[in-house]
Amino acid sequence: MNAPDTLTPEPTTLTAQLRRGNLFAEQCPSREVLKHVTSRWGVLVLVALLEGTHRFSDLRRKVGGVSEKMLAQTLQWLEGDGFVLRKSYPVVPPHVEYSLTPLGRDVGLRVQDLADWIELNLSSILQARGEPDRTAP
Amino acid sequence: MNAPDTLTPEPTTLTAQLRRGNLFAEQCPSREVLKHVTSRWGVLVLVALLEGTHRFSDLRRKVGGVSEKMLAQTLQWLEGDGFVLRKSYPVVPPHVEYSLTPLGRDVGLRVQDLADWIELNLSSILQARGEPDRTAP
DNA sequence: CAGGATCCTAAACGATACTG
DNA sequence: CAGTATCGTTTAGGATCCTG
Q1: Which of A74, A113, B42, B123 has the most Cβ atoms closer than 10 angstroms to its Cβ?
Q2: Full-prediction pTM beyond 0.70?
Q3: Nearest-Cα residue of chain B relative to residue A31
Q4: Cβ–Cβ < 8 Å for B97, A5
Q5: To the nearest whole number, what is the mean pLDDT of chain B?
Q6: B43 interfaces chain A, CB cutoff of 8 Å
Q7: Does A120 touch chain B (CB under 8 A)?
């Protein structure tokens, strides 16, 4: 850990190659999915839906700052990836419910885990930034 | 869990409030950190650095498609948040090494967990999209 | 109510050139 | 080598209006 002239020579183990083979490759399809899941609103929508089914306006109200357009687009991304189930009731006025598929719950839990960790460690992070700690009184 | 007409009325438990209190609030400082960590290149840089110390050009080569500018900016974000340690050796030509702090390793593991999950389930996801499964021959 | 269509701005991003 | 500076392009994102 103290030889500045030798750089870490790639842990070329088989498992590493197989498990995280192409994420670093520019054309890896995972990147698209990752983009949806880690998008500004994707994270919040997934976490919100972990708490249960929501209607469009519920999500809009819950996820502070999201616009109609972006919420719709985010939901379509996540639906397209098989994470979100869209259930439309043919009534007037329209009634649409969004929920997580099993796949979505799985990925949502990991996203929530990450988000929770950040909130929990926000204090240390802000201190690293030299910013005031707003989590403690 | 099966009443479509009653939406989840906010789990106003203390723990929920404390643990994920303000993520949904527009001005929550966590969002900024989340943005860095889940950014297009932030994810890849964190995962790359989990494998060990890298020099700038190593990262540049490893993370396919990243530009000098974005790599530099991403590293500065992560350094500012206390996730990445920048070690500069005053030699010529310049020699700079990037590694993860304990905090960075912690968050990196969660990001990697998410990324790995996506790669592992890419097959199911692409099928949900109706796209061909490129992970199986 | 749920969103599609349109228009527009700000931000992200990339390519290139340049410097200590 | 490890960046910064600058510029041009692309995309994200928001506001508004409109419809079933």
Answers
A1: B42
A2: yes
A3: B40
A4: no
A5: 85
A6: yes
A7: yes
